[in-house]
Amino acid sequence: MSIQKLDPQALAAALQDLPDWRIENEKLHREFRFADFKTAFAFMTRCAEKAEELNHHPEWFNVYNKVIVDLTTHDAGGISQSDFDLARSMNAFAAELK
Predict the structure, then answer these.
(1) Beta carbons within 8 Å of 18's beta carbon, 6+ residues apart
(2) Number of C-beta neighbours around residue 50 at 10 A
(3) How far apart are CA 46 and CA 89, in angstroms?
(4) What is the pLDDT of residues 36-56, one digit of tens each?
(5) How high is the pLDDT of residue 1?
(6) What pTM did the predictor assign?
(7) Model confidence at 3, in pLDDT bands (50, 70, 90)?
(8) Per the domain annotation, does 4 fall within a domain?
């Protein structure tokens, strides 16, 4: 079973459930901020474990307490349901660390 890129209508509907995320440069994008570097790193560790479980890995960048995330599914040629699944997990991890 191949992963499919979401069409514009499905993409808009899925974004309704993730208000802190947006489309930027054809990727699902969000910036997370934490109290300090240690908390940001804990967040990234939890996300890395989930990404391995899903076999779906983020593009991300970290400086001190900020983690910038871009999600896309290269095999699908754009944003897929897998990106939204990982984004929801990331939101949950961030909420637990606040």
Answers:
(1) 28, 30, 84, 87, 88, 91
(2) 17
(3) 9
(4) 999 999 999 999 999 999 999
(5) 58
(6) 0.94
(7) confident
(8) no
